[in-house]
DNA sequence: AATGAATGAGGCTTCATTCAT
DNA sequence: CATGAATGAAGCCTCATTCAT
């Protein structure tokens, strides 16, 4: 009689470990043995739950992105005005703490790899799309309240999320010209451009 | 009578092939044998010119980026007004033709890999910095001519190049919500926000 | 109320499945998981009834051969003359129907494997010896009735069973020069040579 | 500048080793590492000349059979009468010396495996067919000289080669009822039945 | 009596690297 | 300068076997 959700538990355990390793050494150097060790299971167990290494990696990418989105939910539930909310959202995306850093690194791997793998592109679209939608909704609310200037909110959203992604890459690459503080201010500068008046 | 610079030629031949393969299969799947084949040389020859695989890849990244910048020079030499020049620069960066596509794909690999390798971060900074400087200079010229609004031109430049990078990734990932046309318009929308008045 | 001999039933169920798989994929590719599936039990159950894979295989070989002999009994009980009986015995051994085909395939695996494993040689001798004895008895009866020429009946038996085995292999290998009909006629030609006159 | 026929040499070296290992441990237990060791090369070299293990094994089967046929040629060139020649051919096929024993063991593996692999069936037919043809030719010559009785020589040939194969299996399985001497006499008994008068 | 999750040793295969030519 | 045969370390994956339930 199998314990309930042993499978779901074990899968998460493995995927979480895969993200850690992915962020640490990159896709190129990821070894399933290392993932197994990080997850505290045997290499055989990895293959008991996932057919191939590719499957592990793809699932890890998905796991990383959905986790990332979950962490945004609290912000939306707060009672701030839309412009502040945008700043909070950006703030939450900054590659600041180790958790966020890990997420970004995994993301960068997904982007590089996703260029050649349709399934990964779907993962990106499914979850990145939600992120874009969230920003769009906040902008739309801002427009209704007269806080955000006229214009296509989807376009504004794409501008912001695109900029966040691009700047984050430079931060992660330790560019001397783009640190955390600069990234925050640069993003807020764009939000400032969105403001009415 | 041996031609001078056979070595330089051979190096370029190999690096060019490496970029092609890198864009095609990604760093994870890049095999020196494949690079050798694409370059029309033997695997032994690769190692005659480069110590290790890592050396080939790093040199290929550098090769890709310097090539990329070269292609911007003609725009700067033109006689357009700064705002039009910015649009042209953005246009030249769109992942539109196969050459540009290849460059972007290699770039994405560099970003993912550069997160862990200092030498690659230097490559990024050296060449990415130039790109940022070019944009900054154009913006500054625009401000001098009263075409671009007040504000730190470096910040404006970071906004634009960051957005270009972020949006390009989505285009390369075939996001249904971000195609070439949309990317162009979105970038131009930002340039519009920079305009005085 | 537990049925008696559940164990014996389960064993047969497993061995029967093992023969099916053995004939289908060969010893080299036989996986206990596949046997378990074919038997409709779990992999754990296989090991509940058999210590090792080798044990399963050996038992399956024995199971295959004893099954095979059982199918000859009805012929011996019939009221034909010995020469006809020989023809019937040969006929019953032809790799004609799927059941017979499976038995032959398992047999071929036994031969290849038995070359290195004494226990399998004993299995072969125990059951193959019976088959030889049956043929010998029929030949001896034929001699008593003056239908079979003088000579050592054991030698005649060895000639016939040897020929049957050798030809069967070629039939099973789909040799264009040895089909079922040809095998039947070739064997009967030998029986013809045994006939008195 | 590659030495001439390094490739052919190396291939034979590997295949010869494969046959040794095949005879010794069987297909089921054949490890490429063991073949490599027996051939005195690295495991990498095996894969430099053969794509997969399956390719090595198939080539080894072919190698074994063509080698086997070569060893018959001298008999045909001799000046004996056809009946003696048949006895010599049989004699040369007896699993008597270690070389012949090895060939038979490899053959048994081929038969078991060939049941499921078309390419191996072709190998069998190509080379087994030649063996059958040789025997047929000798029998035909015997008929021309009045030494062999009337009848289809192909049928006679099939009788003999079939019997040889079947009896050899029992010898190889160490059947107490079929040793080398008995096999020789049993085959000669059949040849005796072929004799005119 | 039976299950199936988990293991881990070991095999095939890949591929960067070497080196004799 | 260049080759390509050869290497061997290392990775993915398989699968017989175990054991808690």
Describe this structure in words.
- The structure is a homotetramer of 197-residue chains.
- Helices cover 76% and strands 0% of the residues of chain A.
- Chain A is mainly α.
- Chain A has one domain: Tetracycline Repressor, domain 2, CATH 1.10.357.10.
- The first copy, chain A, is elongated.
- The mean pLDDT of chain A is 93.
- Chains in contact: A-B, C-D.
- The interface between A and B is large, with 45 and 46 residues.
- The structure holds a DNA duplex (21 and 21 nucleotides).
- Chains A, B, C, D: This is TetR family transcriptional regulator C-terminal domain-containing protein.
- Chains A, B, C, D: Pfam families: TetR_C_6, TetR_N.
- Chains A, B, C, D: InterPro entries: BetI_C (IPR039538), Homeodomain-like_sf (IPR009057), HTH-type_TetR-like_transc_reg (IPR050109), HTH_TetR (IPR001647), Tet_transcr_reg_TetR-rel_C_sf (IPR036271).
């Amino acid at each position: 009689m199998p314990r309930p959700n042993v499978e779901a538990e074990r899968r998460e355990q493995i995927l979480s470990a895969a993200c850690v390793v992915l962020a640490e050494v990159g896709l190129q150097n990821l070894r399933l043995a290392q993932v197994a060790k990080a997850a505290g299971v045997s290499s055989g167990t990895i293959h008991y739950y996932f057919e191939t290494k590719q499957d592990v990696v793809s699932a890890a990418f998905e796991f990383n992105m959905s986790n990332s989105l979950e962490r945004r939910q609290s912000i939306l539930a707060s009672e701030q005005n839309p412009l502040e909310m945008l700043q909070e959202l950006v703030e939450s995306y900054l590659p600041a703490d180790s958790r966020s850093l890990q997420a970004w690194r995994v993301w960068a791997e997904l982007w590089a790899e996703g260029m050649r793998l349709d399934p990964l592109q779907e993962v990106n679209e499914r979850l990145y799309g939600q992120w874009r939608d969230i920003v769009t909704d906040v902008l739309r609310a801002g427009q209704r309240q007269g806080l955000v200037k006229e214009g296509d909110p989807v376009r504004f959203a794409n501008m912001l999320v695109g900029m966040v992604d691009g700047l984050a890459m430079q931060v992660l690459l330790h560019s001397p010209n783009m640190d955390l503080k600069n990234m925050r201010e640069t993003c807020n500068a764009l939000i400032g451009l969105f403001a009415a008046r």
